[in-house]
Amino acid sequence: MVVKVGGRRMWLWRAVDDEGEILDVLIQKRRNAAAAMKLLRRLLKNQGVHPETITTDKLASYRAALRKLGILDRHRPGGMRQNNRAENSHLPIRRRERKQQKFKSQGSAQRFLSAYAPIYNLFNTSPHLISRPGLRTLRAAAHAEWAIVSQAV
Predict the structure, then answer these.
(1) Residues in Cβ contact with 29 at an 8 Å cutoff, skipping those fewer than 6 apart
(2) Staple 113 to which of 7, 25, 42, 71, CB 3.0 to 4.6 Å?
(3) How far is the C-alpha of 136 from the C-alpha of 125, rounded, in Å?
(4) DSSP H or E segment with residue 10
(5) Comparing C-alpha atoms, which of 48, 25, 50, 51 is closest to residue 38?
(6) How far apart are CA 117 and CA 90, in angstroms?
(7) Is the pLDDT of residue 52 over 80?
(8) Strand, coil or helix: what is 107?
(9) Is the Cβ–Cβ distance between 37 and 68 less than 8 Å?
């Protein structure tokens, strides 16, 4: 996804797991193999486990980066529907960008998006998959956890 930062266009690289949780977010000036390598190294280092499959869009940079990492056999270049989780997770960022009329710098965009991802994961309960009482329980737990996390130190 393209994000406007200080009047310039930057690329938003986002990793999402199979349940829709945001694993990592990275803002880069370019959309090349070096940027893909940076995202994938960060992911593999921070997650601690190697994924069974890696679904991406059909950008050749992913293939080059995965070949360098030696995990090209796990790569599944996505088609129309396989990459939907990552694409749909961009929607709240687009809303935020429209309201703010761009991010002011690459650093501010990276800070906001890195902080936003865990908050999104906390409140993303997939209401269409569970019953109303279960949803109320999960939302109450999320709000209780948020109250603890957001208390002033």
Answers:
(1) 8, 10, 11, 35, 106
(2) 25
(3) 10
(4) strand 8-16
(5) 25
(6) 11
(7) yes
(8) helix
(9) yes
